[in-house]
Design brief:
Blueprint: H1 3-12, E1 14-20, H2 24-35, E2 40-44, E3 59-60, H3 64-73, H4 76-95, E4 100-109, H5 114-129, E5 138-140, H6 142-148, E6 159-168, H7 170-183, E7 187-190, E8 192-200, E9 203-211, E10 217-227, H8 233-240, E11 248-258, E12 268-271, E13 280-285, E14 288-292, E15 296-298, H9 308-321, E16 333-342, E17 352-353, E18 357-361, E19 367-371, H10 377-392, H11 417-425, H12 429-439, H13 443-452, H14 467-475, H15 481-488, H16 491-494, H17 496-514, H18 518-532
Parallel strand pairs: 1-2, 1-10, 2-7, 4-12, 10-19
Antiparallel strand pairs: 3-6, 4-6, 5-6, 8-9, 9-10, 11-14, 11-15, 11-16, 12-13, 13-14, 17-18, 18-19
Bound molecules: flavin-adenine dinucleotide.
Length: about 525
């Protein structure tokens, strides 16, 4: 169904549930609710995943540092959270086999006493995961550590420990969850903002919406409303009641991307101690090296940018562990995201606070869910829908199906798909791998489109096809050049120069697919420039 029809459908029906926010949490809620047989609408004021959910470190993890903290604080609840996240990790690897995979992570150790400490901790991590699919952690000596990671500082290296976590493509996971929800009947529209609530006798019965692309206003009716707006959750709570105490604080996290030669090909690096006593990840991602992250108090804003100081901080940490120089000239791309951190004791009414996320129900019936992490989006969604069902007596037809329901592209995906596509469509294997890992079992549809565009690529030497632009517009709700280059294809996240090279052609193709006039093309150019700051 195209965007205009989705918008008409929003106005014509009474929904059981309106979800505000199309990031990981909102997408997860929409899929959970529609899988229970509820009538669901979701609106997102920007593009899907344009908030924190495209800007993460892209790890599916229980959190080894949380486990360490749990151990020292003798905190059973914290153990429980790590265990739960590890359980979710095993589910995500199954429901999104094309987008998520295991990644080995090496922690280099420079003091002999650290070896038994880290190894024991990671063995406990393995044990908590209780997951036969994940290889166990192990010790490797200094020689092997250097074989895996020749750029490590050799002097004083005592060896390392290797453990496994999950890694994924966050923005594509986000759109794939939503596409599955839409397959099941949910209505989800991007560039539509909730501007205010409609109420009867103090209870929310729907919302006034604004279409950011046309400036038109319209309304939607719903029995229950869930606020899943991440770092912006307080702004939506304040639409309901301006006197509420803020629930969240934000902290910013920046990443940089370097050439692939800076990371071992199939292994990541966990730098165990930064100058501010945190950890730093260096991960192979999309044929490049992703490094992050920082952690600084930050104001809530729509499009945070990585600062020059953030970049310098990351490079300083690398310099301590690397024998080769890495400078600002090596930075191919960067991004910054905001962590929505729940303030203890801030939520009111029926608040259920774990230290990771909070669910709050206000007297108006508005339910807010905030905090948490990508890894636990499915679990958070389940709890939020449970709350909405109980509070608003929603007519569920069955239990949530999301534990086994594959996201779009995941259902029939098989690891030999790239080779099959290569044979059938006579496309280079690198292209078929990229398409398979992005679209899963839907990659064939992109290949069919590619046959009509002479299999043209967007950037010489890179695997992105022109056909993906029309596909993104027609089947994945992309409405701007940034949507395509940053969140459907991820090129802007790995190589800004590559994105700049492709932008004119992408705008042309997108404009043709969506019937843009010159004013719309100009607005698109302004959006692109604003995104990169
Ligand atoms: C630097 C960093 C690294 C991270 N790394 C990891 C990691 O490796 N693994 C992990 O598990 N987690 C990680 N996380 C956490 C994870 O990314 C977040 O928990 C998750 O993305 C939050 O998703 P969300 O849907 O709650 O918020 P968001 O993704 O921000 O989505 C909220 C959406 O609501 C929309 N919205 C706001 N107001 C309105 C309105 N009025 N109307 C309509 N829509 C509205 C926004 O535009 C936005 O798209 C990381 C976070 C950060 C910041």
């Amino acid at each position: 169904m195209d965007r205009e029809s989705q918008i008409t459908a929003l106005q014509d029906a009474d929904f059981d549930l309106l979800v505000i926010g199309g990031g990981a949490t909102g997408a997860g809620i929409a899929l959970d609710a529609v899988s229970r047989g509820l009538k669901v609408a979701l609106v997102e004021k920007g593009d899907f995943a344009s908030g924190t959910s495209s800007r993460s470190t892209k790890l599916i993890h229980g959190g080894v540092r949380y486990l360490e903290r749990a151990f020292w604080d003798l905190d059973r609840a914290q153990y429980g959270l790590v265990k739960e996240a590890l359980h979710e990790r095993s589910i995500l690897l199954k429901i999104a086999p094309h987008l998520a995979r295991h990644v080995p992570l090496l922690t280099p150790l420079y003091r002999r006493v650290e070896v038994p400490y880290y190894l024991a901790g990671l063995k406990m991590y393995d044990w908590l995961a209780n997951d036969e699919q994940t290889p166990p952690s192990r010790y490797i000596n200094a020689e092997d550590a250097l074989k895996h990671c020749p750029m490590l500082r050799e002097k004083g290296l005592r060896g390392g420990v290797v453990y496994y976590d999950g890694q994924f493509d966050d923005a594509r996971m986000n759109i794939s969850i939503l596409l599955r929800a839409m397959d099941l009947g949910a209505r989800a529209v991007n560039y539509v903002e909730v501007a205010s609530f409609t109420k009867t006798a103090g209870k929310i019965t729907g919302a006034q919406l604004k279409d950011a692309l046309t400036d038109k206003h319209f309304s939607v009716q719903a029995r229950a409303v869930i606020n899943a707006t991440g770092p912006l959750a307080d702004s939506v709570r304040h639409m309901d009641d301006p006197k509420l105490k803020p629930m969240l604080k934000a902290s910013s996290g920046s990443h940089i991307v370097l050439d692939r030669r800076f990371s071992p090909a199939e292994m990541g690096l966990l730098i165990p101690k930064t100058e501010d006593d945190r950890v730093l990840f260096l991960l192979p991602w999309m044929g490049h090296t992703l490094v992050g992250t920082t952690d600084n108090p930050a104001p809530v804003q729509n499009n945070p940018l990585a600062s020059a100081e953030d970049i310098r901080y990351i490079l300083r940490q690398l310099a301590k562990y690397f024998s080769i120089a890495v400078s600002e000239k090596d930075v191919l791309a960067k991004w910054c995201g905001l962590r929505p951190l729940v303030q203890p004791g801030a939520a009111v009414s029926t608040a259920k606070i774990s230290r990771e996320h909070t669910i709050e129900a206000l007297p108006s019936g508005l339910i807010t869910i905030a905090g948490g992490k990508w890894t636990t989006y499915r679990r958070m969604a389940l709890e939020a829908v449970d709350e909405a069902v109980a509070l608003h007596k929603l007519p569920v037809k069955r239990a949530s199906q999301t534990e086994t329901l594959a996201v779009a592209g995941g259902g029939d995906y098989k690891p030999d798909q790239p080779q099959r596509l290569e044979k059938r469509f006579q496309l280079p294997l690198t292209v078929c791998k990229h398409l398979s890992l992005s679209y899963g079992d839907r990659a064939e549809r992109v290949c069919e489109l590619a046959l009509k565009t002479d299999k043209r690529v967007l950037v010489p030497g890179a695997p992105y096809l022109e056909a993906e632009v029309a596909y993104a517009a027609l089947h994945e709700s992309a409405r701007s050049t940034v949507d395509v280059l940053a969140r459907r294809m991820r090129l802007a996240f790995v190589n800004k120069e590559g994105a700049d090279y492709a932008r004119t052609r992408v705008q042309e193709l997108l404009g043709d697919a969506l019937g843009w006039d010159q004013a719309q093309r100009d607005a698109d150019s302004r959006r692109y420039d604003a995104y990169f700051g």
